[in-house]
Amino acid sequence: MSHPTLLAQIAAKRRWSSDDGARAFRAMAREMGEDVEISERTWHRWCRGGLRRRPRMACCRVLERMFGHPVEVLLAPVEVADTGAAHPGPDGIPDVLATAAEESTAHLAQVESLALGPVTLEQAGDDVIRLARGYATAPPAQMLAQGARLRRRIADLLPQTTRPSQHRELYLMLGELCGLLAVASFDLGDTAAATAHARAAWGYGELIEHDALRAWARGTQALLAYWEGRPGAAVRLARSGRGYVSGGTGLVRVCYIEARAHACLRDRDGALQALNDARRAADAGGGDELHDGIGGEFGFGPVRQARCESTVHVRLGDGPAAVRAARRALAAHTAVQRSAKLLRQAQADLAAGHLIQDNQDAAAEHLQDVLNVPVQHRVTGLIERVRTVHRLVGATGRPPARPLRALLDQLHDFLAAPAGRPLHS
């Protein structure tokens, strides 16, 4: 008859299922470079006991590394404690002291065994950075799939460590990934999913008290509220984001987003004040590990700043200011940092600025490049800017000039084929 092993006892204390145990074993094997895997059934047999032969050497090495005990001890039946030892006499006290010390040492060994190697954490962090920095050049649907896979992989690492510092690193990565999933979901037109991801990103930031992540997530929530036609909520969320950062790129971003929300409310004074706050923060400099250290989709450099400003002026109906800001955004692009998404959004704002001034020929010139964007890159922010252009064309009160009239069919086709589900606001 078989009896539960020490391994079973340890697994029970950790509330591990056979699947949990097998996954933890495989993770440790990968970290050690051991070419060995086990199934749930194998883990269950080890816990049940009564093995006729010892596991192969690679398995033994992994088990001993995980739990700090020889495999013969781990796979041996747990001895039933002597009930008479519950109230030891004076002669038994040394044994009790020795046993307690041994148990403390064994527990420490178990805790130390549940820690991720530095290579595992470094690889996970690098993968998040690569995703953030590569976002601008890849279709959002592809980035959504990659981000979801990476988030699952990093979440699976949490049970494999007991170290608070490693938990904090993993929670930060999960928050960053939720942020990227929010952007991808929005780019594909699903603001409900985007809002859920952004709220989760803020929750991870709140859990580890990471101000840059909290500010970025609040700014993203504000941006989503803006696009959903809730500018009042967008202002409140952006101001909440300001509370986490006293300066640097994080403050610049939330101020620009707040300016857009004020413009949507036709609050010219509020919009211009927020723009001034953003410029002052940008002039003061400063950065953080998220907006500047990782950058990429988390970054908010001169191109994004000028593009945001052009959108504010389009909303306020200030054509000349919109054109100036959009041109600054285009001029700020470099061969190394070129983002087709930001470039075309700035061009759409530039076309809108020209239409506000009734300069249809110039608008048509810039709109042509926008309408050539492939379907998989027609993200929501671009679709909605082109929708604004379409609305301005119809608001002139007279037939469009020939260059613009030639683009009308393309414009309709463009709006009918976004990268994902479009917004209708």
Short structural description:
Among the domains are: 1-78; 301-425, Alpha Horseshoe (Serine Threonine Protein Phosphatase 5, Tetratricopeptide repeat), CATH 1.25.40.
List its salient traits:
425 residues; mainly alpha; Serine Threonine Protein Phosphatase 5, Tetratricopeptide repeat; 22 helices; 70% helix; XRE family transcriptional regulator
Order of helices and strands, N to C? HHHHHHHHHHHHHHHHHHHHHH
Q: What is the CA-atom radius of gyration, in angstroms?
A: 29 Å
In the CATH classification, which architecture of the domain at 301-425 applies?
A: Alpha Horseshoe
* Mean pLDDT figure: 87
* Number of strand segments: 0
Instruction: Give a quick account of the main beta sheet: strands, pairing sense, barrel closure.
Output: none
Shape: elongated
Proportion of helical residues:
over 70%
Percent of sequence in beta strands: under 5%
Give the end-to-end Cα distance, rounded to a whole number of Å: 70 Å
Low-pLDDT residue spans = 80-86
* Secondary structure category: mainly alpha
Give the number of helices: 22
CATH topology of the domain at 301-425: Serine Threonine Protein Phosphatase 5, Tetratricopeptide repeat
CATH class of the domain at 301-425: Mainly Alpha
